[in-house]
Design goal:
This protein has 552 residues and is mainly beta. It is 9% helix and 42% strand. The chain has 4 helices and 42 strands. It has an 18-stranded mixed sheet that branches. A 5-stranded mixed sheet has the order 28-34-33-30-31, with no helix packed on it. The protein starts with 7 loop residues before the first helix and ends with a helix. 31% of the residues are buried.
Length: 552
């Protein structure tokens, strides 16, 4: 019976040591076990699993097989790993979104990566901004590379037909998320190395990040457990915990990861895009990572962004079903556990942009005109006018309009109305309607009539009847009744205007009411104003007196 280990430190060391033993690389492994099946014989097994040139007699001798002609089903054959057939394994590009390329050994030019490509060891992979890439390895394990990452396929070996694969990746910088197939066999191995740590597993889901700028590595375990080593020290990291290690330092104690946020995707299809996705604030989170993919396998990311607040605006994605996952990031930049949900988008073609009437505006024409911008996605539009926001009382319905405008089919009484517009694409699909846009049909403002002006030697005063509070008045004064070049063109807040007295002769003046929303009503009646010339009258009187003096 083993003595009880009382020290926590010793306990952690022992756990890490046990995991390290379970993940011993192939060079230190001992035997691989094969269970004999019916009709197996030692010659076929030797040619199937042993290296070329390795005689079958060695396998017989090693397992003390008395009769090589008869292997009883269920018998366990032990085969030293050093005797097993080994060949280079390949990694397959499963999915890629964005700009990713690989620098292959001996090749001068990088190779743009496409789904289906096979890559061997020694390849260096780089992802650009807004790029994600998923690789699948010989044992079915998968690695998702996030944007702005660089990783080298350091070693990829398969032990014949045993199913054991030795995969070692070297992450120079960036971030990867690995889902490792549970391993059987002593030589099976999977590890991700950064400049500061090595994370070794035998089947788990974990993330590794290498921050080149901060010279720091982070490992986060979502399922299973892993061994994180650095500077000759091993730390066992269990599910739901993570560890941050400075380059060259020894790993410390693993920390709990933030729990998943309470993410709830909408149950109904999303019809308005972009869509604002939100969740409750997560205690301890300084930021959040939001990812969107076409499936819950998250093979390639359509969205991978950081948010400083508990919400994110999803981009205009095509109609379909999407997987969303969100997790918090703590003060040490350890990224927490994922909250995952699915949502469905059914928002295309999107409604056009509304020109007029805008929501909440006032309209004076009893047969209003409705205008919108023409959408490149649309071949026609569906337009509706209603007396209520729910459109249960539809007053007009045009299901197949072309162009960018329509007019109400009949005069409407004053009151509140609602209208909406939707686009139809070339396949005949009608997209979602715009939000119900309310507007108010109101009477035209009264047309002000200018009263009799008054003037002094230097000033002309104009006045008219005041309207409602908040209204303003647009005044024009011109020699021409067509007002082509007004000498006065002003907007005032009160129902009067004083201006320097213009030249003598005939003038024309008019006024229109301007509503608080900027709408200008019709012009009032044009008034004629005659201004006399005082100098002319003096000259006339003086001339008459002189003529009278001459006659006398």
């Amino acid at each position: 019976m083993l003595p009880r280990i009382r020290s926590r430190k010793a306990g952690r060391w022992m756990a890490a040591a046990l995991l390290a033993i379970s993940t011993v690389p192939a060079a230190q492994a001992t035997d691989w076990t094969y269970r004999v099946r019916p009709r197996d014989n030692i010659w076929d097994l030797s040619s199937r699993y042993l290296k070329p040139g390795m005689p079958w007699q060695k396998l017989q001798e090693y397992n003390k097989v008395a009769d090589p002609y008869h292997l009883p089903p269920g018998m366990r054959l032990q085969i030293p790993v050093a005797w097993l057939r080994v060949q280079p394994a390949k990694a397959k590009v499963v999915a890629v979104i964005g700009s990713a390329h690989a620098q292959l050994p001996g090749e001068a030019q990088p190779l743009a990566l496409q789904p289906g490509m096979q890559l061997g060891y020694g390849a260096r992979l780089v992802t650009g901004a807004d790029t994600s890439l998923t690789l699948e390895f010989a044992d079915g394990s998968r690695v998702l590379m996030l944007q702005d990452s660089a990783m080298e396929l350091d070693r990829m070996s398969a032990y014949g037909r045993t199913g054991m694969v030795d995969t070692r990746l070297r992450l120079q910088h960036g971030r990867v998320s690995s889902t490792v197939t549970p391993m059987t066999g002593s030589a099976a191995h999977f590890s991700v190395e950064t400049p500061g740590t090595t994370s070794s597993v035998r089947g788990t889901h974990f993330r590794v990040a290498a921050d080149a700028g901060a010279h720091r590595s982070r490992t986060e375990v979502l399922t299973g457990r892993i061994d994180v080593s650095g500077a000759r020290r091993h730390t066992l990291v269990e599910k739901g915990r993570g560890i941050a290690v400075a380059d060259g330092a020894r790993p410390g104690r693993a920390q709990p990861l933030l729990p998943p946020p309470a993410l709830h995707c909408p149950a109904r299809p999303i019809v308005q895009v972009p869509y604002q996705l939100g969740w409750p604030v997560l205690a301890g989170a300084s930021r959040y990572r939001v990812q969107v993919a076409a499936s819950e396998r998250f093979e390639a990311l359509l969205v991978d962004r950081l948010s400083d607040s508990a919400h994110a605006s999803l981009p205009d994605l095509p109609d379909g079903e999407y997987a969303v996952r969100v997790h918090g990031i703590d003060a040490q930049q350890l990224e927490g556990q994922d909250a995952v949900c699915t949502l469905r988008i059914n928002g295309h073609p999107q409604p056009p942009l509304v020109v007029e009437p805008q929501s909440g505006s006032k309209v004076r024409d009893t047969r209003p005109r409705f205008r919108w911008t023409e959408s490149e996605q649309a071949v026609s539009y569906a337009w509706q006018l209603a007396a209520d926001a729910a459109f249960t009382r539809v007053l007009a319905d045009k299901p197949a309009l072309t162009g960018d405008h329509v007019r109400a089919p009949q005069s409407l009484p004053y009151g509140t109305y609602y209208w909406r517009i939707a686009s139809r694409d070339g396949n005949g699909k009608l997209g979602p309607y715009s939000a119900a846009l309310p507007f108010e049909l109101v009477p035209q403002p009264p047309s002000p009539e200018v009263g009799k002006p008054s003037s002094t030697r230097r000033q002309l005063s104009l006045g008219w009847q005041a309207g409602e509070p908040g209204q303003r008045y647009h005044v024009q004064l011109d020699r021409d009744p067509a007002f082509a070049h007004p000498a006065v063109d002003q907007t005032v807040d009160q129902a009067s205007l004083q201006i320097p007295k213009p030249g003598s002769g005939t003038w024309y003046v008019r006024v229109q009411t301007v509503e608080p929303d900027g709408y200008a009503g019709p012009w009032g009646p044009v008034q004629k104003v005659r201004l006399s010339c005082l100098g002319c009258r003096i000259a006339v009187v003086g001339g008459a007196a002189a003529l009278l003096w001459l006659l006398l």
